């Protein structure tokens, strides 16, 4: 299987990062947190892999949306 890695500023709630309007838009504003700053999702074959591939929107967006709605 493939692993989906999210890269983001884990201090976005306390450092004044601008609201991520893309996340708010595709979740209908129902996120558990007001996600801010840039977020990047990439694929890898292993958890500790250092070689990444582009995420595939049609396959990975549901998993990302679930994360933003529940985390």
From TrEMBL:
- Superkingdom in the source lineage: Eukaryota
Annotated protein name in UniProt: Uncharacterized protein
Q: Which organism is it from?
A: Macrolepiota fuliginosa MF-IS2
């Amino acid at each position: 299987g493939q692993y989906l890695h999210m890269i983001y500023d884990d201090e976005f709630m306390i450092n004044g990062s601008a609201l991520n309007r893309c996340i708010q838009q595709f979740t209908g504003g129902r996120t558990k947190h007001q996600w801010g700053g840039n977020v990047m999702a990439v694929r890898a074959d292993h958890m500790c892999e250092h070689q990444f591939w582009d995420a595939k929107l049609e396959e990975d967006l549901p998993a990302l949306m679930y994360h933003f709605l529940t985390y």
